[in-house]
């Protein structure tokens, strides 16, 4: 196999924390190409082609360690050419509402604190607190989200009895906490005024991808606003509609990615 065809054959890693956050991706892969499943570290990695893109699809489960371990396996055992994380998150920015979509451009671990040895939030020995998503992947993802909202937003707005969902791009913060109080989310807003969303995996994936030079991108649908209503709102959103978002976003994103790779 020459370098060009080998490069073309490298798959994209697509992952989420929970099964609902993958939408119909695995069944769509099954229908399109068949699926070969390999189990490693108690995770099932589904290998096949979906919406024209060779992919490895898996579930990280919840939290930064789970996410980092899964990203590392995708890189080492499957030689992925990039990683895309899809899922739900709590809204932090005042303009970010339930049903909106946030595409991460920068990611930060809000619970990292090795003071006074290192500045607050800095990852010790890496010399940085923030990790950038790959610009091209994030742009393709944001474009797919905009098209999803344009084409399916009316039905989504009817579901939420609100205005059309919006797509935001910017800072996503991650930590090993489900943020569920006005006080906690207020503290995060104060520490990171530009943060749009809070979740539990994205910045861990971004760190691993940074360390290995693998492009990554994160897309999050807002399931709650990280306050006292968060656990009810999160659970309802996950059950009722998270899959609709992931299905709609991923099929547009992957089709665009396939067209770019041709
Ligand atoms: N396994 C449990 C717990 C999920 S924790 C369950 O299924 O009920 C919440 C998940 O959604 C995490 O993966 C996190 O990334 C994201 N998330 C959504 N809202 C969040 C919030 N308010 N704070 C932190 N993470 C949130």
From TrEMBL:
InterPro entries: MTA_SAH_Nsdase (IPR010049), Nucleoside_phosphorylase_d (IPR000845), Nucleoside_phosphorylase_sf (IPR035994)
UniProtKB keywords: Amino-acid biosynthesis, Glycosidase, Hydrolase, Methionine biosynthesis
SUPFAM superfamilies on file: Purine and uridine phosphorylases
Domain Nucleoside phosphorylase: 12-255
Domain of life, per lineage: Bacteria
Annotated EC: 3.2.2.9
One GO MF term attached to the UniProt entry: methylthioadenosine nucleosidase activity
Keyword Amino-acid biosynthesis: yes
Pathway involvement of the protein, from the record: Amino-acid biosynthesis; L-methionine biosynthesis via salvage pathway; S-methyl-5-thio-alpha-D-ribose 1-phosphate from S-methyl-5'-thioadenosine (hydrolase route): step 1/2
CDD domains assigned to the protein according to its UniProt record, in alphabetical order: MTAN
Matches recorded under NCBIfam families: MTA_SAH-Nsdase, PRK05584.1
GO biological process, one term: L-methionine salvage from S-adenosylmethionine
This protein's name: adenosylhomocysteine nucleosidase
A GO cellular component entry from the record: cytosol
């Amino acid at each position: 196999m020459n370098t060009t065809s080998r490069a073309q054959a490298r798959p994209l890693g697509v992952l989420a924390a929970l099964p609902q956050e993958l939408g119909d991706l695995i069944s769509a892969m099954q229908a399109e190409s068949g699926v070969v499943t390999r189990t490693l570290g108690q995770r099932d990695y589904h290998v096949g082609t979906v919406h024209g893109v060779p992919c490895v699809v898996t579930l990280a489960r919840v939290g930064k360690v789970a996410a980092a371990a899964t990203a590392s396996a995708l890189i080492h055992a499957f030689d992925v050419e990039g990683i895309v994380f899809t899922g739900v998150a709590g809204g932090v920015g005042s303009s970010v509402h339930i049903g909106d979509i946030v595409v991460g451009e920068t990611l930060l671990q809000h619970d990292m604190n090795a003071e006074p040895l290192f500045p607050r939030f800095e990852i010790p020995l890496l010399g940085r607190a923030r990790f950038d998503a790959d610009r091209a992947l994030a742009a393709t993802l944001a474009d797919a989200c905009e098209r999803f909202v344009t084409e399916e937003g009316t039905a989504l707005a009817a579901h939420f009895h609100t205005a059309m969902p919006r797509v935001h791009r910017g800072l996503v913060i991650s930590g090993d906490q489900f943020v569920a109080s006005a006080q906690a989310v207020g503290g995060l807003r104060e520490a990171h005024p530009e943060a749009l969303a809070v979740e539990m995996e994205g910045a861990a994936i971004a760190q691993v991808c940074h360390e290995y030079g693998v492009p990554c991108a994160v897309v999050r649908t807002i399931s709650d606003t990280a306050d006292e209503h968060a656990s009810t709102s999160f659970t309802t959103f996950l059950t009722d509609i998270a899959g609709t978002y992931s299905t709609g976003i991923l099929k547009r994103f992957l089709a665009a990615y396939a067209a770019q790779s041709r």
